[in-house]
Design goal:
Elements lengths: L2 H19 L8 E6 L4 H8 L6 H4 L5 E8 L2 H6 L8 H27 L4 E3 L6 E2 L4 E2 L3 H7 L4 E2 L5 E2 L6 E8 L24 H5 L8 H23 L22
Antiparallel strand pairs: 1-2, 2-8, 3-8, 4-5, 6-7
């Protein structure tokens, strides 16, 4: 199996899901590949010791495939105003998590059928609530795989912006890794002036993330309790720092 086969599978699965649920994703999804031999995995582990090296999850892993599903323009625009998250944003968050879980497993199964050990990782909800740590970070994996760079909102800014949902597949298939960007995508990290994402946060969590991340957790749990019935599933989300900002749907100029 070649990378183009994997991209085609991902594209087809997203298109089918999009049609079924009436979500106008900003297609196509973005996909990147990292090597399990990349020394950056050890650097990440040194900074965030709770994040596993890929070989702790799949012993014979050779490649890490990371994909970004760009949320719809309608969802982004609906969530760009006010303090409360929009119902459309929350519904798309809930449904896209389901899509990513399905998509990760579909890619892993397809690779398994042609003889490669593979596992798909959950979209979310596999973290420790008290410490807010997890054995895997799709964002960091996306960075290693060349999907983008981090913004000051701690999100990965991809060619389709930061308003995306990420998924990961580990496989024993050896694929050519993608190069990482040579420049920062975040305007502030390039030395420019912006910071709009910090101002958009309803609970000021981004001003001091070491303590602010717990404010963020509490806020999204409030949203889940308030809107779960209307959404039809778990919607512990907000998304304000990725909506109505220069990096929402593209790399800022």
């Amino acid at each position: 199996m070649h990378i183009e086969d994997i991209k085609s599978l991902v594209n087809n699965e997203v298109e089918v899901f999009s049609s079924k649920f009436g979500i106008k994703y900003r297609l196509p999804p973005v996909l990147g590949v990292a090597s399990a031999n990349d020394p950056l995995w050890f650097r990440i582990r040194g900074i965030h010791p709770w994040i596993h090296h890929p070989r702790e999850l799949l012993k014979d892993v050779e490649s890490i495939i990371v994909f970004a599903v760009p949320l719809s323009l309608e969802a982004v625009e609906s969530n760009s105003k006010g303090m409360e998250p929009s119902i459309q944003w929350l519904k798309e968050y809930f449904l896209t998590n389901k899509l990513i879980n399905h998509l990760s497993q579909a890619v892993a199964d397809a690779l398994g059928r042609v003889g490669f050990n593979s596992i798909g990782l959950k979209a979310t909800h596999d973290y420790d609530r008290e410490t807010l740590t997890s054995h895997w970070s799709h964002r960091h994996a996306g960075y290693v795989a060349g999907l983008g760079t981090f913004g000051i909102n701690n999100l990965l800014i991809t060619p389709k912006g930061a308003a995306v949902r990420l998924g990961t597949v580990l496989t024993s298939l050896r694929l050519n890794p993608d190069a990482r960007p040579e420049v920062e995508y975040c305007t502030v990290k390039r030395g420019g002036r912006c910071g709009e994402c910090v101002l958009k946060c309803p609970v000021n969590a981004l001003k001091n993330w070491s303590t602010g991340k717990f404010k963020c957790r509490d806020w999204i749990e409030v949203n889940d309790g308030k809107y779960r019935d209307a959404v039809g599933g778990v919607c512990d989300a907000c998304g304000k720092c990725s909506c109505g900002v220069p990096c929402s749907i593209k790399i800022p100029e």
